[in-house]
């Protein structure tokens, strides 16, 4: 069993997010945390809203891109910051479908410590299982 985690590596005009975990869901949640922690200190912010959505995606790379696109959309368009994430696969839904729930706070409830994420670059981003561990790699534009 591997502990989950993430790191964000600054690069020109963005950052590289790397995440890992024992399960697909755990790794995705870590990738979301990495994106949020790259620009915000959550502190004691208590969620006062949430967004839920279901995804049916063709592959794991598309799953990562779609989840991170939704996170960035919440930040940029709705001015909401995800502070907690839960991801369930196939619980009462068809296999290959995922239910995602982002607990959110207003952007002004967090302390901004970096540039807001603007987009995920599909080229160079991937999500897969390697040697029993789920790993995500995403290029984020800021």
UniProtKB/TrEMBL annotation:
Domain Archease: from-to ranges = 6-88
What GO molecular function annotations does the UniProt record carry, in alphabetical order? metal ion binding
Enumerate the InterPro entries for this protein: Archease_dom (IPR023572), Archease_dom_sf (IPR036820)
Q: Which residues form the signal peptide?
A: none
Asked if the Swiss-Prot or TrEMBL record annotates the protein with the keyword Metal-binding, the reply is: yes
Q: Which GO terms describe its biological process?
A: tRNA processing
Q: Which Pfam families does this UniProt record tie to the protein?
A: Archease
Q: Which UniProt keywords apply?
A: Calcium, Metal-binding, tRNA processing
Gene3D superfamilies in the record:
Archease domain (3.55.10.10)
Q: Which family does it belong to?
A: Belongs to the archease family.
Q: What is this protein called?
A: Archease domain-containing protein
Q: Native species of this protein?
A: Thermobispora bispora (strain ATCC 19993 / DSM 43833 / CBS 139.67 / JCM 10125 / KCTC 9307 / NBRC 14880 / R51)
Lineage here is:
Bacteria, Bacillati, Actinomycetota, Actinomycetes, Streptosporangiales
């Amino acid at each position: 069993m591997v502990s989950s985690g993430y790191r964000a590596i600054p690069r020109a005009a963005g950052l590289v997010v790397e995440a890992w975990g024992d399960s697909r869901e755990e790794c995705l949640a870590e990738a979301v945390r990495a994106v949020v922690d790259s620009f915000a200190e959550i502190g004691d912010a208590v969620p006062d809203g949430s967004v839920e959505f279901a995804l049916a995606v063709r592959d794991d790379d598309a799953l990562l891109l779609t989840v991170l696109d939704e996170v960035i959309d919440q930040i940029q368009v709705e001015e909401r910051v995800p502070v907690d994430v839960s991801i369930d696969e196939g619980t009462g839904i068809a296999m290959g479908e995922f239910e995602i729930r982002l607990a959110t706070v207003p952007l002004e409830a967090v302390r901004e410590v970096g540039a807001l994420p603007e987009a995920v670059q599909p080229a160079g981003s991937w999500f897969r299982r390697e040697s029993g561990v789920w790993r995500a790699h995403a290029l984020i534009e800021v």
